[in-house]
Amino acid sequence: MEKTWIRFLLPDDEYKRRTILVYFAEAAILQLIAVLTLIVISRFDFIPMDGVIVLIGMLFGTIAYVWIRYILSGMEFAEIMTAKAYRRERKLIIIKSTSFLVIMCASIASFDVFGMMSVPLIEGLIVSFIAALLLFLTNYVSLKRSYWKNRELID
């Protein structure tokens, strides 16, 4: 593995490591373009902006870019090549997402029972449902893309 401080973020697989580094580089270039655009916009006062909100938006935008590119690349489930393996992994994704939802809902309910929540129970449960849905969708999309990519490689 390369001698770099970023290696803790990278997988051991060389192909995945190189591809993720490309995604990080693309995100950095897009971030540079966004910074230059924001400098121009702020210089001429087209749109009033709060600096903290802009920085947080850029941080999450960069993370989202790398995350979405990785999901859509189809390299997460490299071993899924048959329909049977695809169905088995799809069931595992459903089980993992459901388990996550149950654990989160139970945690939030217990926080509510002990009075440790400052928001209504329904809001906490909605956040749990959204998080479980995002977990399911990202894994399912990645699985589907990986399966079709692997099928194309076989054919």
TrEMBL record:
The chain crosses the membrane at residues 20-41, 53-72, 93-115, 121-141. This is DUF3278 domain-containing protein. The lineage of its organism: Bacteria, Bacillati, Bacillota, Bacilli, Bacillales. It comes from Terribacillus saccharophilus. Keywords: Membrane, Transmembrane, Transmembrane helix.
